[in-house]
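Bump. Still looking for MFS transporter structure tokens.
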Amino acid sequence: MNNKNYILYFFVTILFKLSDKMYVIAIPWLIYELTQSSVSTGLMFFVQTLPLIFIAPVAGTLADRFSRKKLLIYSASVQGSLVLFIPLLHQFDLLQIGFLYLIGFLIASAGACFNVTNSTIIPQLFKKELLMRVNSLFQIIDTSSVLFGSIAAGILISGIGVYSLFFVLGIAYLPIVISLLLLSMLHSFSPNSKKTSWQSLKEGASYLWTHPILRSLTWLIFIVNIANGSLVSMLVFYSRDEIGVTSTELGWIYAGAGIAQFVGILLLNVVKSSRNTLNAMVVVLFVSAIGIILTAFSWNWFSLMICISIQSAPVIMFNVLNKTFRQQIVPAHLLGRVNGLVMMIGLASLPLSGFFVGFLSEVVNIRWIFLSLGILSLITVIQFRRIGNKRKINSSISESKLSS
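Sorry for the wait, here they are.
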């Protein structure tokens, strides 16, 4: 393994993920300090969610038209500058809630561009046989940053104040940019900047639509995320309303699921080939659907913790497998657009599912909702397995290698 790239890339990943998770805690804290309004806090969440859906395909197009390394550097530079702009506006007594919405939208847009490009550049930094290991470690860092970033944000807000925290987070992007500058590209591709952005996006969408496995896989992600998004968004309500758990027990439920996710990620390195990767995706989503179904029958906090662990660990494993599979079979010059479109489609179902299930649970017992969505996921996974037969898998991989 290229030790220089390995050290630099994961230093960037750790620092970026920790900074991002601390920012996610700090920005609603600041909104509440300024407004004491739940509506304002919710509006900021909405403003920061939009780029994850709509900017992702644009970011993918840019990643296929220009240097991915430079795109990462520009995205990180923009994010760091915008974060620093918050304490600067406060210092001059110019900070208004409208400015925060705009800054939040721009930071989220640059973050979406960074995340899509970061996922796309991995095959250029590491050998193909190391992709699973790299993606597994990336997911471990991402999962860990939620815990450690939240703890660090709380300590720093209490210790130095929220505006000083934004200053620290902004400065943290400087070593990120420096490390990105030092990365070495092991593999290169020739960006095609002759086509218009719309033509490039259509080319990526056409590839995704005509590829039998990727098209079915993307549809699978959308359906499964409806069930997963519903469970995640309504878990606290379900825990308290149906089972009556305490706050301590709820913490154990999340902690147990987190431990299961780590164990699941560690198991992924037994997968060696593209064919095994695809088969493993089917297995883990099948298990996850079973977990959703079992959740509908949980009766206390411990049984719920087991069910949520069965549901959530395979989802994290699927994320790693899915990313690796795309990196292995999608031609380098199309990978950014495919990643962006898959991210857009996958994320689109999450807020929609939470919104509709919240209303539906007013008239239908939530256990029945979880049971129905789990069965829907199960049927979708089985149908995908029928489509992804051995002949199609092998021909898809062969065609992708020829076009790379």
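The chain has a mean pLDDT of 82.

Edit: fixed formatting.
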